[in-house]
Amino acid sequence: MISYVYNQRNFNNLRKLLPDFCLHYLCLIQKFYQLHLKKHIVNAISFPEFINKLESIISVHQNFTGSSYYESFQTHKKYLLMVSEFPKFSLTFLASLLLFMASCSSPAIDDFSDVQFELTNHHGETVIFPDDFEGSPLVMGFIYTHCPDICSFITSNIKKVYEETDSPGDTRFVLVTFDPERDTPEVLRNYASAFDMDREPFQFLTGSSETIQEFMQRVSVRTQESYSRELEGGDRMYFINHSDKILLIDQRSRLIFDYGGSMTPVDIIIEDLEKL
Amino acid sequence: MNKYIIATLFTGLFIITSCSSEETASEQEFILPDEGIEIAEAWARPGRENGVSAVYMHVLNGSADTDTLVSLSSPSAGLVELHETFDRGEGMMGMRESEEPYFPGKSVVTMRPGGLHVMLMQLNEVLTEGAEVELNLVFSHAGEITVTAPVRSQD
Asked: What's the gap in Å between the CA of B104 and the closest CA on chain A?
């Protein structure tokens, strides 16, 4: 069941079938699948059982999801269970219930307004996160330019979100490197140019190693050098294992959603972006 | 309205539980060559000069036997290797050199984003959308095959 939801095409079909408020939890299922927790919930058979197991997983992993997420899930859980257990609820009650759930279907997962990171964009200009982005929705991905597959995928997805959003308005589209050693502003500019993204509203950000390390920690992007080898000419080549994600941050620097960067269909990100 | 909601919930659940066997996409059908190997629909990612790119394709092996990819080269890159992206677990993605450059007989192996790909390193030119990159693949039985892959940012 979980692997079914993990498959993007199924995810899309399911999304059309289920009421909107379920999306949040479908995305969570994907996230947990990514975290290899599928063994805990893969055998869930009934909806209430499934909801309970999901709750226990969120509870155990509050460090990852944030405690507000757990609290918000508990509120939703009550109503999700009511809907499944008492099918004869009055129309009025259900309507108000749905209205309530719709109003809190996108709780903020995190809030970045209390931090400040001095980063550098691909033109060498100083950019302060999140201050310089306040007032604009922000779609943010994480890459390193020596990664041709997943990171190109994430980069293209960010570009596609911009191109396919009807009215992006003042939304900013940003990619931050977790390899500041090699990804200098100049390297990022060349990378941006190869992807035809050396233009507004795209920005590619780097920074000092310490700042990038702290930044990645704050946005829960994990990285780990995998292997390295010497190339002819003495250069060192290395690869990095990394989290695969795209974040949607609102005008008030609150993290609204955390998507699988390469695997989430862009129309889901666009739909969420257009609600901001 | 409540009936509708319950119905959608249960239809959703029914579909979740009943269709899990349909996870694999129906693979695009290709006509295998009578013998040897053919490459179909090759395309490459954009890449900066001195940077990297990936080439994706379908490898159609029409012969009865497994063939092995023994070498890769490109006039656009200093170093070319067969790599695969893999899920390291806990939401982490990694990349490594593929240790199994084998292409079974009478079958199609697809290199696609997020999986097996040809990695071009030390690019000696910028690859922007609309450009083309040449790639030489040498198989132990099928011999040398040269493909031209158009550069696209999306598949």
From this structure: 24
Q: Do B12 and A1 touch (CB under 8 A)?
A: no
> What single DSSP character describes residue A107?
-
Burial environment of residue A260 by CB neighbours within 10 A (0 to 12, 13 to 18, 19 or more) = buried
Give pLDDT tens digits for B18-74: 333 333 333 467 899 999 999 999 999 999 999 999 999 999 999 999 999 999 999
ipTM: 0.79
The residue extents of the domains of chain A are: 2-107, 111-274
Per residue in A149-174, pLDDT (tens digit) is 999 999 999 999 999 998 888 999 99
CA distance B36 to chain A (A): 28
Give the contacts of A158 (CB within 8 A, at least 6 positions apart): A139, A141, A173, A174, A175, A197, A202, A246
Residue B14 sits at the chain A interface (C-beta within 8 Å): no
Report cis status (omega within 30 of 0) of the bond before A148: no
Which numeric CATH code is attached to A111-274? 3.40.30.10
What is the mean pLDDT of the segment spanning B96-111?
Answer: 92
Cβ–Cβ contact B137 with A under 8 A: no
Full-prediction pTM beyond 0.80? Answer: no
Q: Which residues of chain B make contact with A35, given a CB cutoff of 8 A?
A: 89-91
Q: How far apart are CA A145 and CA A114, in angstroms?
A: 29
Ordered by start, the domain boundaries in chain B are 37-150
Contact A195 B12 (CB under 8 A): no
Min Cα distance B113 → chain A (Å) is 6
B112 vs A: CB within 8 A = no
Using one digit for the tens of pLDDT, what is the confidence trace for A173-190? 999 999 999 999 999 999
A102 contact residues in B (CB cutoff 8 A) = none
B37-150 CATH, one of 2.60.40.650, 3.20.20.140, 3.30.360.10, 2.60.40.1890: 2.60.40.1890
pLDDT for the residue A31:
52
